[in-house]
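Form 12-C: Joint structure prediction
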Amino acid sequence: MSFREKVVSGRFVITAEVAPPRGTDWKPVIKAIEPLKGKVDAFNVTDCQRSMVRMAPLPMAKLLLDSGYEPVLQLTCRDKNRIALQSELMGAYALGIENVCLMTGDFTTLGDQPDAKPVFDLDSVQLIETASRLNRGQLLNGKELRGGVDLFIGAVYNPFAGPEILQIWKLEKKVKAGARFIQTQPIYDIRLAEEVSRLIYSLGAVPIVGILPIKSLKMANFMKRLNPTSVPDSLIRGLESSLDPAAYGWEFALDVARACLDFSGGIHFMLVGKVQELANFIDSVKEQRDYNDKF
Amino acid sequence: MVTVKLKPLDEIIRSLSGFKRVYIIGCQLGSARCKNGGLREAYRIAGYLELKGFKVVGVKSPGGTCVLERLDHSAKSLLKEAQESAEVILSLACGAGTQLIAENVSIPVKTGVTTLFIGSEREGRYFEEYCIACGDCVISDTGGICPVARCPKSLVNGPCGGAIAGKCEVDPNLPCIWYKIAQRMEQIGELKKLKNPVPPKDYSLSVYPRKLILEE
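Section 2 - Result
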């Protein structure tokens, strides 16, 4: 069953992140996720995440597809104007990539080439609307397509950003514009994950909760600097008192992931390393009889 | 106003090398307001240049160097005076003023400033970019506060996910302008208007060089 079929039919989905290489060495990237084959439903291919130059996500997504993995192509508004974005979406579909996750993107100056010219011709809401228009057989300017697309559109949501009401309205705009699944920023609090999932369902999309295991106190503090309210004190205290903080952070994140089975549409792992452990976790969850019908 | 910033002195001197007689033209509008190219700064630069062996033959700062009539009038022409007495003109006016000088004299024109932005002024020392002259003004719908100029991503449908604790992801010293817009819209009872999706902006309206021609 494809990622889209699962999401649409209400099954629980598991996605994970794949960053294209800095260079052309794509084979090790695919080799690294081999233990997740058949376990993770789809892999988000990031678009020069944090504004660091990497291989383009579209060819990487195609390489994943050819290697037997289903991709979710991430596209940002940072580097491409509406002409390039529409053309990229059509190109992706022609290559067999139907899942896309559309977002504004990190700002240029945060990356490793801060002197680049930022684009931001469209914003995330407008990009999603543009993709929906392509799905209806039209370009943004109304011209008919010769051969249409049928993209499965997703978007992102950060429950820690503000102002809260505007973030919720923007999420609502994204869903109204055509986003069918919403992948969130990492959440470490089960109650919040449930609240966010309920919100996304109520707007008419399927929530996929972001899971990012914390490896160390240093990483927790880094995350806290980025997003002060996202890392709960209990996690910090646990990391401080644990003899093996990496194991503690891992279990902490998996607890949230496991809980999501009860109230969310899926989980999205944003991690580097620990691929085998993740595969084992997915197996253990899928073996639980109670949850069997969810997958 | 248009704000400018004086270039480092050694850079100004480098651009004038090979010339002896210099005429300095500032501007009493933007450049003077932001204290980076008015009459006072023009005299200060003149003093430095004299110390470095240049001969400053004139210092003037019209009330609007980007207005041709202020530079070149049948009764009195600053440009004529400058090019008759100097080998080079050093302009401290914004990019518009400096170009207008250059287009109307035969001698070389160098700039002593970099033009920064269209901004506001507070307390005589805080200058902030408020407008990028996008040609398609939206501020009637955003509480009179411009997200196109004051959000680095020019987002018109609300804040991005990088707006954490009221700060912009681009610069932690920069407040996210969407907080201010929300506050203002609430104050004037228009908050709900921000629920409406905003279509893509027409960027053809900001394709330069633009013109404004008044009817006779």
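Section 3 - Comments
Chain A has a mean pLDDT of 95. The first strand of chain A starts at residue 13 and ends at 18.
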